Amino acid sequence: MATRLCLTLRNNQVTMKPCAAADKAAPWSVIETPNGTQLVNSVSGTCLARLANDNAHVARCTFGDSQRWLVLPWIVGGGGRFRVR
User: Fold this and answer.
1) Where is 73: in which H helix or E strand?
2) Nearest-angstrom CA–CA distance, 41 and 6
3) Nearest residue to 1 via CA among 79, 74, 55
4) Contact between residue 24 and residue 17 where contact means Cβ atoms under 8 Å apart
5) What pLDDT is attached to residue 84?
6) How far apart are CA 41 and CA 20, in angstroms?
7) pTM of the full predicted structure?
8) How many other β-carbons are positioned within 10 Å of the β-carbon of residue 52?
9) Beta bridge partner(s), residue 80
10) Contacting residues for 44 by C-beta, under 8 A, at least 6 apart
11) pLDDT score at 1
12) pLDDT tens digit string along 56-76?
């Protein structure tokens, strides 16, 4: 189900906001590594990480287990959209 929300980083807090092309906090780079896929915020250079309670936050990139993501192409609509699990 499409939500038209984008992952953004504001004041070091990960949030979902309505997508806006001009939002400088929204760009994330998908980095493939031998250990899995990382999501790196293009502004802060920090990685999306999973806390023990399954909440998301950002942290210095360590390539650890909490920063590995399964990134699936979002087929409907295209345009470089992804689902992350």
Assistant:
1) strand 71-73
2) 12
3) 74
4) no
5) 57
6) 16
7) 0.76
8) 6
9) none
10) 9, 12, 58
11) 45
12) 999 999 989 999 988 776 654
Domains and CATH numbers, the chain: 5-84 (2.80.10.50)
- For residue 77, CA distances in Å to 8, 63, 82 come to 20, 30, 10
With contact defined as beta carbons under 8 Å apart, do 42 and 31 qualify? Answer: no
Nearest C-alpha neighbor of 8 from the set 26, 23, 20: 26
DSSP 6-31: EEEEETTEEEEEE--TT-TT--EEEE
- DSSP classification of residue 54: S
Per-residue model confidence as pLDDT tens digits over 5-58: 888 888 889 988 888 878 877 788 888 888 788 999 988 999 999 998 888 999
